[in-house]
Amino acid sequence: MERIFLLVLSGCLGVSRVTADSLSPPVNVTIKEVKANFAVVSWDIPEGDPVIGFAITQQKKDVRMLRFIQEVNTTTHSCALWDLEEETDYIVHVQSVSMSGTSPLSEPLRFRTPKEAETQASKNEVTMEEVGQATQMRAGELIIIVVVLIMWAGVIALFCRQYDIIKDNEPNNNKDKAKTSSECSTPEHPTGGLLRSKFPKNDNNRLPSVNIIEV
């Protein structure tokens, strides 16, 4: 990878470049991540062009000083612009580089760098937005946890209620069983049946007599 940086004064020094007629200039040239002393320029290359690199011309508005950046043997479609001045207007051109030369200049891209204080304020705003999003996520998680706990409490309360009902019915069932068992049983036959007399009856249906003999 080869990178060339040139800072020249227009009219005093010139940059000799061979233009390749077969190349089209880059398209969709945009600027992003603009800060007080830093920015990133990006672009797209028309499909089919034998591009091996790019060349960027950076110039202050109304100033005849420019910076020329060239990089070859790369497929990168973006470049960082550094050492910028805050509250300053810049004009940027991008060219494609091939083995036969460079393409025509792209459409000029104009942008202005902000104040350092504005950059810090934007950072603080982003931080506050992130904090707000994190707070919303935590609030949502807490709501879900509370709902789950309420559901579990309801299930436990229902279980305890059913258990108390079953426990209260057990003594009544035991009493009913004991009463039924006592009604169906006799002293001689605890498991039920008729009580039979131990003494046989005589023909006259009278009980047998007992004679006592004194000696």
Provide key terms for this protein.
elongated; 215 residues; alpha+beta; disordered N terminus; single chain; three-stranded antiparallel beta sheet; 1 helix
What does the model show?
Strands 1, 4, 5, 7, 8 and 9 form a 6-stranded antiparallel β-sheet that branches. The longest helix has 68 residues, at 116-183. A hairpin with a 4-residue loop joins strand 4 (53-60) and strand 5 (65-72). The protein contains 1 helix and 9 strands, in the order E-E-E-E-E-E-E-E-E-H. With 215 residues, the protein is an alpha+beta fold.
Structural class: alpha+beta
**Span between termini:** 149 Å
Helix tally equals 1
Q: Gyration radius, to the nearest Å?
A: 52 Å
The averaged pLDDT comes out at: 75
Number of β-strand runs: 9
Strand content: 25-35%
Order of helices and strands: EEEEEEEEEH
For the largest beta-sheet, the strand count, sense and barrel status come to: 6 strands, antiparallel
3D shape: elongated
